[in-house]
Amino acid sequence: MMMEVLEFVMSVEFWRMSVLWTFCLLISYWKLIASYSCSSKPPPSPSAFGHRPLCIITGATSGLGAAAAHALSARGFFVILVGRSSHLLAKTMMDIKTQNKNAHLKAFQVDLASFGSILQFKASLQKWLSDSEMHSSIQLLINNAGILATSSRLTCQGYDQMMATNYLGAFSLTKLLLPLLRNSPIPSRIVNVTSFTHRSVLNVQVNKDIVSGNCFSRSKRYPYAHVYEYSKLFLLLFSYELHRQLGLMDISRQVSVIAVDPGVVETNIMREVPSCLSSLAFIVLKLLGLLQSPEIGVSSILDAALASPETSGVYYFGGKGGTVNSSVLSYNAKLAKELWNASSDLFLESELASKETISVSDGKS
User: CATH: 3.30.1300.10, 3.80.10.10, 1.10.8.640, 3.40.50.720. Which one for 48-363?
Assistant: First the structure.
């Protein structure tokens, strides 16, 4: 165990997380203080819409996802919980029901690192909406699922698992559910949960090899801090590009897109880091006043979810309606377009592979 900890501490990735990520977090707070903007108006109540809005939250089994599910169900949303563990989904639903017996909830077991699982979720969701005689639409999609993997792992499609979960899964899910979001009788919204760590990336090339994460699996030592940063930067670039494209398609902006940075929240995302180091990091961040509980950290997500319908293309940080500018690189329109094209190519390849798999399965049966 001691050798594992020493090896971890001696790595470049560890010091990148310890020093550079802390510096990036402080930059975000400095920007918030320097140009503080907060919403003085209370968020609208879903009941004012005259219709119970449907909200999908990925990574809803713990941490920020579970906190968002608790808060939004209490505000009158019908919450769809999405997660990898059926056991944890059931536990989260039980916890919410214990506090709010009138909560409207539904759970789907989905692996965001698997395109086939996402595709199956869309089909199951549409069937459930039809069987429940509910309107075939979604009012709110919160792409919150994310992992910090310290070792290289590949998905069944051969993609890097962290990149697939943190970015490609969100891209694919959003692309598949966009028709349901656009079909909403009231303005709908996509909220992408990103991170201040994106500020660590000063330059990056975008191609399918990088977006799929294939290039990282070939590295002698898995650059997990870099991969995490890239995935969060890509989520931001995607958010801004989707905001731009939706604006071109629909001037009245039926679907809005908001990026959210909750800051540092005490969740289990650090579970692959040696426990003594993650505990020490949490203690230091708590002493600095930078560590939040999920119940406090979720405030930025709620700000975004409940902002006025015309709000789109912004970056929420710090709670209380606070917004800041993300990194200069995240606003690079050329890079965002390249990312969109590479991600779309991977999406089409995954879709084709899934159809071929289904075709082969049907042939055998």
Answer: 3.40.50.720
Tell me if the pTM is above 0.85. Answer: yes
64: which residues sit within 8 A by CB, 6+ positions away?
144, 193, 262, 265, 267, 294, 297, 298, 301
Domain ranges of the chain: 48-363
How far CA 276 is from CA of 6, 7, 62, 225, 293, in Å, comes to 11, 13, 21, 18, 19
List pLDDT tens digits, range 200-212.
999 999 999 999 9
Q: Is 80 helix (H, G, I), strand (E, B) or coil?
A: strand
Crossing angle of helices 86-99 and 63-74, in 10° steps, is 40
Tens digits of residue pLDDT in 315-362 = 999 888 899 999 999 999 999 999 999 999 999 999 888 776 665 555
